[in-house]
Amino acid sequence: MRRSTAFVLRSVQLAVGLFLYGASTALQVRAVVGVGSWTVLTQGLENVLPWSFGVITVVSSVVILLLWIPLRQKPGIGTLCNVLAIGPSADLVLWLVPEPDGLVPRILLFAAGLALLAVATACYIGAGLGTGARDGLMVGVHERFGWPLWLARTVIEVSVVVVGWLLGGDVGVGTVVAAFAIGPMVQPLMPLFRRLPWSPQRQGSTPGGGAPTAARVAPCDSECPPTATPARSSAVR
Fold first, then answer.
1. In 97-148, which residue ranges form alpha helices assigned H by DSSP?
2. pLDDT in tens, 79-97
3. 174 in helix, strand or coil?
4. Which distant-in-sequence residues (6+ apart) come within 8 Å of 29 by Cβ?
5. How far is the C-alpha of 6 from the C-alpha of 151, rounded, in Å?
6. Is the Cβ–Cβ distance between 43 and 35 less than 8 Å?
7. How distant is the alpha carbon of residue 226 from its chain centre?
8. How far apart, in whole angstroms, are the C-alpha atoms of residue 147 and residue 175?
9. N or C: lower Cβ tally within 10 Å for the chain?
10. If you ran DSSP here, which 8-state letter would residue 33 be given?
11. In whole angstroms, what is the distance from residue 124 CA to residue 131 CA?
12. What stretch of H or E contains 63?
């Protein structure tokens, strides 16, 4: 397959994955049984800022991306698309999907959101066009200060959960489930996207568009287990 055609198809895959990522986040928010760490912070900020969930997601991603500068991380196309796409897609699905009544529907909606998050993460990371802003922050701390990856992720994610919770974010059973389940759910899906004819692995090229270290170690954008550093070989979110 020609490289230009492969790049177009990888870009489409990236767009689909990011849209589904935002949609999956929205489903977990609507389930109201607890959300992932960074979503807790977003919900908390939603209580103190006059902006929608999606706008806060975009603005916070831009702020996090600015932190890459002193950490000497380089964004890729996928990183920038991640910043711009996930928030609006989350807002759209939050508008379309009402909050369910009853515990069982909430659990089912959360499970559907978590499964969709795993597919979305593998899809957008599999495009090989750059990691998410939050994962780049983790890797930047690791490289700049020499912290182990598990320690960098743990400190960052515990910090955002605590701040988000203090601001009124939804911390619950779903927060714990999301933290420990998403990594193992994403890992077996990654080989499926690597087998696509236009995947960077099939094309025999190094995945382009951004910080290579972040791309190797981060299977999803900061919704994975704090101690997990599965190889990409996420995405956020």
1. 103-126, 133-145
2. 999 999 999 999 999 999 9
3. helix
4. 35, 39, 43, 53, 90, 94, 170
5. 37
6. yes
7. 13
8. 25
9. N
10. S
11. 9
12. helix 53-71
* pTM for the predicted model, two decimal places: 0.81
Pair of tokens at residue 100:
């369910």
Distance CA 19, CA 64 (A): 20
Q: CA–CA separation, 81 vs 14, rounded Å?
A: 8
**Are 36 and 29 contacting, i.e. CB atoms less than 8 angstroms apart?**
no
d(Cα 67, Cα 200) in Å, to the nearest integer? 28
Give the distance from CA 70 to its chain's centroid.
22
Gyration radius of the chain's alpha carbons: 17
Tokens of 99: 């909050």
Could you report the per-residue pLDDT of 23-63, keeping only the tens digit for each? 999 999 999 999 999 999 999 999 999 999 999 999 999 99
Measured between alpha carbons, how far is 190 from 13 in angstroms, rounded to an integer? 13
**Residue 178 DSSP symbol:** H
CA distance 15 to 186: 18
Distance CA(222)–CA(224), nearest Å, equals 6
| DSSP structural state of residue 98 | P
User: Are 10 and 207 spatial neighbours (Cβ–Cβ below 8 Å)?
Assistant: no
Residue 29's SS3 state is: helix
Instruction: Take residue 66 and report the two structure tokens written for it.
Output: 């600015």
- Report the 10 Å Cβ neighbour count for 113: 27
In the Cβ-directed half-sphere of 124, how many Cα atoms lie within 13 Å? 35
